[in-house]
Amino acid sequence: MTTTAILLLLVSLLIASGLSYFQYIYKAKNKSKVNLFLAFLRFLTIFSIFLLLINPIITKNRLEIVKTPLPVVIDNSSSISFLNVNKEVEQLYKKIISNKDIQEKFEVQSYQFSEDFEPSDKFTFKGTQTNIDVVAKNLKSIYKNNNYPTILISDGNQTSGNDYVYSFGTENKVYPIIVGDTTTFLDIKINQLNVNKYAFHKNKFPVEAFLSYSGTKNITADFVISQGNLILSKQRISFTTYKKTATVSVLLPADKIGIQVFKATITSLEKEKNTYNNTKNFAVEVIDQKTNIAIVSPINHPDLGALKRAIETNVQRKVTILKPNDIKSLQDYNVLILYQPNTEFKALFENNKVAGINTFIITGNSTDFNFLNQQQNNLNFKMSGQKEDYLSVFNPQFNLFAIDNIGFENLPPLQNAFGSVTVNGSLSVLLSSKIRTIDTNSPLLAFAENQSKRTAYLLGENSWKWRLQSHINNQSFEKYDVFIDKIIQFLATSTGKKSLVVEHEQFYNFGEAIEITAQYFNKNYEFDEKARLTIAVTNTKTKQTKSFDLLKSNNYYKVNLDGLKAGNYSFNVKELNSNSTYSSNFEILDFDIEKQFVNPDIEKMSQLALQTQANEYYPDQVDTLIKVLLENKEYKAIQKNNSTKTQLIDWVWLLIFILILLITEWFTRKYNGLL
């Protein structure tokens, strides 16, 4: 209490004593024991009231013993049961946490991890991934600024997350208990397969395989890639006690269009304990997307070279630059880029009315707009002979296809004739134009669809400056080239707008997230937030069907199908209000990453112990570990003083005490006839 509070209490004591003495002793005719008792009651009452008014703060100190935390972290992944050490892990856990000396010295806390980390004292060993890195992150979050040891019981085989050796830091010791058979068994396995998701028809696609071997003698193995009963590639690989890894690169033909499933296998004449990791399935979607584009121009211009380079960054695009009269057959091309058309293009326009090839019309200072008005009816041009610079304005509502704003507003202006452009019919505008700060309400880049014919319009020349500026801004041409590629992709296909668009993978690995997303558009091709989407998934072998609702998330709907077994599945997505449907299939490949290991990762676990200035242990050394922890003087219980401050006015019992004093005083006076 402060000096002021003590002074006030002394004054209160004097006042309470004086008032009690004056009323019951000084004024009393008979100084009986009753008067002394009443004076005492009055003194306590007045002094208690003064205490409440002064409201001193009472400080209370309480000593508390804080033990050092000891997190015991158990690997709950399926690799533990696959290595047949799940019972051993449970016994180790029980032996540690039930040790009375450990309980007396440490605050023991149990956790489990697989793909996630959580408190637990019961373990199933069914986790589909092993992420030891998540253990480090969570322990740092839970035990901030504490010096504590960690017991990690695991085989050390991590399948996801960052390298855990350096995740724990050096502040706190980690004592790994390495479980699993440490005997080196002969084992050949496919560590990883690298393959593109897509391949193009009649091309060859690369497959890269990383192989490894553990054993004590020299062997040879056959690496085979097959499709069904057909062997596509076979190579003999040699391993020695010094050469334990090999990388194999194979080019496979993409002869069939569609989803093609392949199997990679490595085998030898030697007997292996684990053959599960000798095989990996993979799938490639073979698509026919070779596109021939003709850029037709009567003049030479830097735009032509910039367009050719941007388009041909996609290896499936081939660009030919021609004069209007050089085209012999329109059937040789999938897309026509008509650069600044004039009367020389008359025959080309006439022939294309029959051929129906999608076109990309680019105008500029050399364009004959009267001729162009005669050849198309999407736009009507009334242009003067004066030149004008047009800046671009991105339309975020554009939804004909997915496109990102690459900073169009900051790109150099395009040059075109000054005048008015009138839109006839339906036109999807990606970029509108403005002159300096004035919006023209006219399109700069727009797209039209008339029945099965698609047309794009870019109203201005010098788009080569856009590509150059994009490179300056991003140190790469990539963003601009992707922008042009999306335009060509739109023109290279003649499929009309779909009201129901579904995105999914053609194959998934067992145990990974299986997510299917969908978008539903109304008649105006606007995203419908009130759509009701369901999906029915059927196992093609068992014919068992499960149905789910797709849930809205931002501007799409999604469903998570985790938990399905390996196999082939067909599915049907349906919008209940319009009965629009989409049907397809996918395959879940029989691949369990947790079954790829035959031995614990002793090297990694030893590195972890060394990094944290601790030691690694094996199951038969758990008593030694317990002894080390008990004898380690770093981990001492701390005597902590908890100081709590309480205001006297918060004491309810003091109010009750005052009330009892007043009642007692009243009854005493009543009983003795003093009222």
From TrEMBL:
Superkingdom assignment: Bacteria
SUPFAM superfamilies, sorted: Class I glutamine amidotransferase-like (SSF52317)
Transmembrane helix in keyword set: yes
Matching InterPro entries: Class_I_gatase-like
TM regions (residue ranges): 36-58, 648-667
This protein's UniProt keywords: Membrane, Transmembrane, Transmembrane helix
UniProt cross-references to PANTHER family, sorted A to Z: BLL2462 PROTEIN
Name of the protein in its database record: VWA domain-containing protein
